[in-house]
Automatic annotation (TrEMBL):
One of its GO terms (biological process) is ubiquitin-dependent protein catabolic process. GO terms for cellular component: nucleus. It holds the Pfam family N_Asn_amidohyd. This is Protein N-terminal asparagine amidohydrolase-like protein. InterPro entries: NTAN1. The keyword Transcription regulation does not apply. One of its GO terms (molecular function) is protein-N-terminal asparagine amidohydrolase activity. Keywords: Hydrolase.
Length: 267
């Protein structure tokens, strides 16, 4: 019996080995993305923006765009919450597209990952293809720049060629990028990943009002508590061991808006 997983893995090998869809992205140089008019998406986050947002949305891994409305969703996947994250991205792009009007198709671009020794990148790429395959709407895979075709051999180690991509929401242009800032509150958002307190993909942008959002989260119990007990009270208190209480007042999200200088301001 030819199972769904087998079908995806066979087609993954064909797409990855050909590299045809990756060439337009790989042929471009990396652009430096500044603070003004940009939004950075962390791991386990996604954001949906419309052409009316005056911004460039930056991320790694996945872009879903409606060719008619221009609505874009970008997600930074690391293997957690793949199926739910993909479904949420597709659903929200469809919802906003129906409000804006315009006929079109859902286009998908997947970039990132390389030939790592443990095969994490390949496993994630297959998970993403499987998640999109399971959607009830037609998906057009436009760019697949992962693993084999995105791999560069330096010395005795493999490295990814494209680590991050940006999307110009006005034109739909997708290009490799590096980033000068990853706000708002990059340390806090990074802590959610390192402490194991949240494994789902979070929507970090309120499209209707144009603000970034950080949802409340807590940490899982930490190992090595004996080491923490050797630290002083001031050090421990600075670590916010219960952020849902100490950081998120009344368990409410934090909201931020960019000013005219590209700086994130809490609101």
């Amino acid at each position: 019996m030819f199972l769904e997983q087998d079908f995806i893995e066979v087609n993954y090998a064909k797409i990855d080995n050909s590299g045809e869809s990756a060439r337009p992205l790989l042929s471009q140089g990396h652009k430096l993305i500044g603070t003004i008019g940009s939004l950075y998406v962390f791991q386990r986050e996604y954001a949906v923006v419309t052409p009316h947002d005056n911004s460039t949305t930056t991320c790694c891994s996945v872009v879903v765009r409606h060719s008619g409305s221009g609505v874009v969703s970008v997600g930074h996947f690391d293997g957690s919450g793949v199926q739910e994250g993909v479904s949420d991205m597709v659903t929200k792009v469809q919802q906003f597209s129906s409000l804006l009007g315009g006929h079109g198709v859902l286009e998908v671009h997947i970039a990132g990952g390389f030939l790592d020794r443990r095969g994490y990148s390949e496993d994630l790429a297959v998970q993403l293809l499987l998640a999109f395959h399971r959607q009830i709407v037609n998906i057009h895979l436009v760019t697949f720049c992962v693993c084999n075709v995105n791999n560069l051999f330096k010395g005795s180690a493999n490295y990814p060629i494209v680590c991050g991509v940006s999307v110009n929401v006005k034109t739909g242009e997708i290009f490799p990028s590096t980033f000068t800032e990853r706000g708002p509150e990059s340390t806090l958002r990074g802590a959610r990943l390192l402490t194991g307190g949240s494994h789902e993909m979070l929507d970090m942008y309120e499209t209707q009002i144009g603000v970034a959002k950080i949802d409340p989260f807590n940490y899982e119990p930490m190992r090595g508590i004996d080491l923490w007990l050797n630290e002083g009270d001031d050090f421990i208190l600075q670590q916010n061991p219960f952020p849902s209480v100490t950081v998120f007042a009344e368990s409410r999200p934090l909201y931020f808006r960019k000013d005219e200088y590209g700086q994130w301001i809490a609101i």
